[in-house]
Amino acid sequence: MMKGKTGPLALCMIQPEPLPGSYRNMGMKIDEIIDLALREAGMVAENGFDGFILQNMNDMPVKQTAPPEAVAGMTAIAARLRAAFSELVMGVLVNWDGVAALSVAEAAGADFVRVEHLFTGVEVTSAGLLEGQCCEIAQLRKRLGSKIPVYADVYEVHGVPLGAKPIEDAAWESVHEAFADGLFISGRTAAESIELIRRARTRVPETPIFLGGGATGDNICELMQHFDGVSVATWVKNGDMKNPIDPARAKRFMDEIRRARELRV
């Protein structure tokens, strides 16, 4: 996944326009959506990020099982991004369907999958209850002979877990009972994120753990002394994921990433 990179990995979220068939799509065709995603991926490359995670965030609201048209649209976008930016790390996140995400990733040749909602347990979200998909994902990996790493969020901050266990126990279960290859963890503040990863490390010391959210140009250097990577969206887009990447903010963010790498050598 690192593709020759050393130190914490910096990934930017690419969140295309609403896909055909989704509630917020106002008639934009897939070709135009792909062109816009390619333009944004170009900005990711120009601003020095190591890669990106492709997510259909703008399709919300969604239930857990992605509809066929979303899977088809994400596959079309991912395949074009992979072909155009083979040097970048590419992750896939399909809201909120890890089985669909792995299917897209396999078809497009992605480097990893992020399962944000939900790998293990049960969670209350704005769309209702979501249930862990670790069994279905494991079955699909077996059927496909998939070697694509699966990175799982542990207690994503926008949902409310039912029967929550201590973060260190939930992290251990995700890795050792559900077989995640890596984790995403984040708290509601930078201090909480650091506390959570410190606790998780007591049970999964060798597992790659990425920061799932809350990174800014002010806190990223400190955070990357604890995490193996980060996915960023809102801060480098001036507070709104619908905005394009702000080159000035992206430069500041990546300057701090490079400083974090130097501190960790």
From TrEMBL:
Lineage, highest ranks first: Bacteria, Bacillati, Bacillota, Clostridia, Eubacteriales
A family per Pfam: BtpA
Name this protein carries in UniProt: Membrane complex biogenesis protein, BtpA family
Gene source species: Anaerotruncus colihominis DSM 17241
InterPro entries from the UniProt entry: BtpA, ThiamineP_synth_sf
UniProt superkingdom: Bacteria
